[in-house]
Amino acid sequence: MKHSHPAFEAVKPNIGSSFTSLKFFRNENIKSHVWHYHPEVELIFVCGGSGKRQIGSNISYFSDGDLVLMGSNLPHCGMTNENTNNDYEMVIQFKPDFLGETIWELPEMHRITQLLERSKAGIVFSENIKKAIGKKIVEMHESSSLERLVKFIEILDALASTQDYRILNAGKYYLQTQVEDNERINLIFNYVKDHFKEQITLDEISELANMRVPSFCRYFKKITNKTFTQFVNEYRITHSLKLLAEKPMSITEVCFESGFNNFSYFNKTFKEYIQKSPSQYRKEFNFFME
């Protein structure tokens, strides 16, 4: 069975540093292509390119790069692959107590403490913040020792000071506190990632999770705040956004390539999620990019 073991990622800080800072050139960070989790908080900056943002139960599309902050043990999937066409990707990982526990009690750290609390549900930052902070992340990565640490705290403070962000997982999101749930949910998420173009029945996904159908439905709703059907539909709609934006395919082809086997159902579901028709979305996206 594919992905029968959930991916727990062990993260080691850079030598001589209290946190990890990594730079990946295009296509280089492909190891993160399965759903995985780790106790470290993670800040990811993707310079250029477009792709799927898969964090917790939120699946969304990004274009022209991305800047996201993900809290401890929040399951997520890689941002970039061979189709992203990004210039590079910066990944910063740090334990919530990497500066010690008492420092977070200082009044100067109050904003950053609140930021880390919000990050438990995943945060995506706006266009302007993404560009400004992206440059600072590169500068920080190229610095050494104490200068690197000071620049990193300045980055966290800048992110904590802005209102230009969006929380990705609305409502109470349970996964960051119950790691045993991560193992089961990662199995489900990876299965959907690999099979969303096919029909996935509640019977087969419940069997995969080793649960009866009614128990599975209650469990999935409690964990993700959405039904399994809603989650799969979001996965398919997000894939269709990518195809509409990037591929010269007809809308009917996009529908079937995204796992929908009924064109009118695809149109109806697309409008529910995006508030416009597929053709209108493609037209507006192309106008925006021009």
From TrEMBL:
Coiled coil, from the record: none
InterPro entries linked to this entry: Homeodomain-like_sf, HTH_AraC, HTH_AraC-typ_CS, RmlC-like_jellyroll, RmlC_Cupin_sf, Tscrpt_reg_AraC-type_HTH
Top-level taxon of the source organism: Bacteria
GO molecular function, one term: sequence-specific DNA binding
Record-annotated HTH araC/xylS-type domain positions: 186-284
Alphabetic keyword roster: DNA-binding, Transcription, Transcription regulation
PROSITE patterns the record matches: HTH_ARAC_FAMILY_1 (PS00041), HTH_ARAC_FAMILY_2 (PS01124)
SMART domains: HTH_ARAC
Protein name listed in UniProt: AraC family transcriptional regulator
